[in-house]
Design goal:
Number of strands: 32
Strand content: 15-25%
Structural class: alpha+beta
Low-confidence stretches: 1-7
Shape: globular
Number of helices: 16
Mean pLDDT: 93
Helix content: 25-40%
Largest sheet: 9 strands, antiparallel
Length: 750
């Protein structure tokens, strides 16, 4: 929208700002926009809204936390406000205090239940989205206290045998506390559970604490009351926490009197409390006898959603038939299983890239997450998510999740084509219209080829991948646009050959424009590496240009521009073995590191394994990655603390190490770590969907001898060409119907 349309407001705003001695906001915004390429959309309202909410919370944090450091705060606050901790951030005149060092949490939940409680690194449970939390403490009669958020060390793990359970163990001399959080069905209703188990060497109290805070900061509680039976809290009138037994003692405090923790020893029993500023704290206490275990379980009913009741054995049915990994490296297998679990939890209908900060929809994230669902054999979930796409398409064909993101149409068409290819289904009739409209939108959106500018023929300037920098003519958008047109052509080849030919030609024309623009970049930069846009120098934003190699495979495995771009990134943009995104994210990125690893894998470069190992080391003890990771603390520093796109990329990386499509055939075992072959146990992966059919792969190592690679397949049609590229052995191209091959000769120098 032109500022001219806001002309009356310009003078009002400027006059008011100058009268109060502030900078002119209109002039300031104009200067900010001047640093980006002109575009029809400035910043997406969704991101602005999220930013405002984030910093509004940060403003409240700044008014509350630093003046009350005698409260028991969540782990991130205890660390970030400690001047002796590596996480410490000076506050100075910062107007907002936000979690920038330990944005780590793990979702628990139940398949197809959209409610996703989260657990922080010290066991703090936030049952409801952006709500209050529950904590567990242990207080000995002699004055010793075990407070997990202040503990120097703890052990945390994720158990996935019967669902998802996060267990956190903390201890100090003579005191031990274990908390476990999960979600289960009770009479068809999903209920979040928190079990606390305590043991002490002397008489003590197990404390279930109600906290007006969560991993983002303050979350208000205005009122709490203890039930007459002393076995439940009623919070703000309509939220309920039930205890497994009656509380022996109960205390409440408000903001003026400080944290209830301060008063656990100096107050009479109370059954309720109010706080006009929303900072009620409460504690239910249960006696602990010396040397005996004491347990208490809190239950929080989750809001009922959806018309259909949740099934009783949802985890078993959700995982049935999915693609599994069996390998001699427990860490790799655990991370793979955790990724599958994350995908199931975050696909109740739409797919979400996170349970908290990113519990919203983006086509970009959805394309990668749905691809992982498909490759994991979770086809029904992928199909259900895709079925919601047409409702988000405008009359002009734009697949819109956030206004101004020009990559969306290409991503939608690409993932649709992957779905139909992997399932061996033709596009259903109801999809034909959205496909045609989506492809035509890309064609119309392109700029003119006749422009006398480096961006001639490209998509307009935008912010599709906001971590690449200010609005610009990003090659990321263009590669997705080309891929989308090619996907549309492939999907319509049988039912609508005229439009198929039109879209194929449009893809060729688009690719030619990008090639011309990239040739100009090569001449300007003196090397073939692809910058983020025609106007950028090489920087971390070039990570987006790798899309032409992964995932859309527009470029050959050994394309000079692709490989030189990777070399630049490895040389200039890696910290501690992982890709460091110094724009926006300003942290180590697991999923972007794996994008580089995927390009290296395709090129037959063994360095892909180094990057995989680095990403595995960055995972939390519960097997999750935040969106960006602090290089010093190892904790999350940006975005959601349980990032599902990262989980999806780990699954896709493992899949491509075992089997991937390349040209008109399959490549098997190209990414298998050589260290896995130094033991005798079989290595298995499958059943893995591919565009040629479903494949199960088994490698039988024989230390000191040649391993056997076997495959079983249910081909869609005839068997495709197969190449076995097991690292350390010469590539072999056996007949696809052979079913196995013994690799007899090691490569020279291997």
């Amino acid at each position: 929208m032109s500022w001219m349309k806001w002309l009356p407001w310009r003078f009002v705003v400027r006059y008011a700002a100058r009268r109060q001695g502030f900078l002119d906001p209109i002039a300031l915004l104009a200067r900010l926009h001047s640093f980006a390429q002109p575009s029809e959309v400035g910043e997406p309202i969704e991101l602005l809204r999220a930013g405002v909410v984030f910093h509004a919370r940060g403003l409240i944090n700044s008014r509350v936390i630093q003046h009350n450091l005698d409260w028991v705060w969540p782990y991130w606050i205890e660390r970030q406000f400690d001047p002796l901790d590596v996480s410490f951030i000076p506050r100075a005149f910062s107007i907002t205090h936000v979690n920038l060092t330990h944005r780590n949490w793990t979702a628990v939940g139940y398949p197809d239940c959209p409610e996703l409680p989260i657990v922080d690194p010290r066991g703090l449970l936030t049952p409801l989205l952006d709500g209050w939390s529950l904590d567990g403490w242990l207080m000995a009669e002699d004055g010793r206290c075990l407070l997990p958020s202040r503990a120097a060390d703890c052990r945390q793990r994720q158990d996935m045998d019967a669902g998802v359970r996060i267990t956190t163990e903390t201890e100090t001399t003579g005191l031990a506390l274990t908390s476990s959080a999960w979600v289960e069905l009770e009479s068809g209703v999903p209920v979040c559970k928190l079990n606390l188990r305590a043991r002490a060497d002397s008489a003590a109290w197990l404390v279930l604490a109600l906290r007006p805070a969560n991993p983002e900061g303050i979350s208000f509680i205005h009122q709490v009351s203890l039930s007459p039976a002393r076995d439940a809290w009623i919070i703000d009138g309509d939220q309920r926490v039930e205890f497994g037994s009656a509380a022996a003692r109960h205390h409440v405090s408000d903001y003026r009197h400080g944290d209830v923790f301060i008063h656990l020893r100096d107050r009479d029993d109370q059954t309720g409390g109010l706080c006009d500023v929303g900072m009620v704290t409460a504690a239910a206490l249960f006696p602990v006898r010396a040397g005996e275990d004491t347990e208490i379980t809190a239950s929080i009913p989750l809001p009922a959603t959806g018309a259909d009741p949740l099934p009783a054995h949802a985890w078993e049915s959700a995982r049935r038939g999915h693609c599994t990994l069996d390998c001699p490296e427990p860490r790799y297998r655990f991370l793979y299983d955790a990724a599958v679990t994350s995908l199931i939890l975050h696909s109740p209908d739409d797919v979400y890239p996170g349970p908290y900060t990113y519990k919203r929809f983006w086509f970009r994230d959805a394309a990668f997450i749905i691809h992982a669902l498909l490759c994991a054999g979770l086809t029904d979930r992928a199909e259900r998510a895709l079925a919601r796409f047409p409702a988000r398409q405008t009359a002009l064909g734009y697949f819109r999740s956030q206004e101004g993101e020009w990559d969306a149409n290409g991503e939608v068409l690409w993932i649709l084509q992957r779905f139909f290819a992997l399932t061996n289904r033709p596009p259903s009739p109801e999809w034909l219209g959205p496909i045609r409209r989506g492809a035509r939108w890309i064609m119309r959106k392109r700029l003119s080829d006749d422009l006398d500018a480096p961006h001639a023929g490209l998509l307009p300037a935008g912010f599709s991948a906001e971590h690449l920098g200010p609005n610009d003519y990003y090659y990321w958008d263009d590669f997705w646009g080309i891929a989308g047109l090619r996907a549309a052509a492939a999907m319509l080849a049988d039912t609508d050959p005229a439009h198929s030919r039109e879209f194929a030609q449009a893809a060729d024309d688009f690719a030619a424009a990008v090639e011309t623009s990239l040739a100009g970049c090569e001449a300007r930069l003196g090397r073939p590496a692809m910058p983020a846009s025609p106007y950028r120098r090489l920087d971390a934003g070039a990570i987006g240009s790798l899309a032409c190699g992964y995932p859309v495979q527009l470029a050959a495995q050994d394309a000079p521009r692709l490989l030189d771009c990777v070399e630049f990134l490895l040389d200039r943009c890696f910290v501690n073995g992982a890709f460091y995104q110094d724009m926006i994210h300003s942290g180590l990125n697991a999923y972007l590191t794996l994008h580089v690893a995927q390009v290296l894998l395709r090129a037959g470069d063994p360095r892909h394994l180094e990057l995989m190992d680095a990403v595995a080391a960055l995972a939390s003890p519960t097997g999750q990655w935040p969106e960006a990771i602090h290089p010093r603390t190892g904790g999350g520093c940006m975005g959601d603390g349980h990032h599902v796109w990262a989980a999806a990329e780990w699954l896709l990386m493992i899949r491509n190490c075992f089997v991937r499509e390349e040209s008109e055939g399959l490549v098997l075992c190209a990414g298998i770590p050589a260290r896995w072959l130094d033991q005798a146990a079989p290595i298995r992966f499958g059943p893995a969907p591919t565009t040629f059919g479903t494949v199960s792969i088994s490698i039988t190592p024989d230390p000191g001898k040649a391993p056997r690679v076997e495959w079983q397949a249910d081909w869609h049609r005839s068997a495709p060409p197969i190449e076995v590229r097991l690292p350390g052995y010469a590539p072999v191209s056996p007949p696809a119907d052979a079913g196995s091959v013994v690799l007899v000769n090691r490569e020279p120098g291997a």
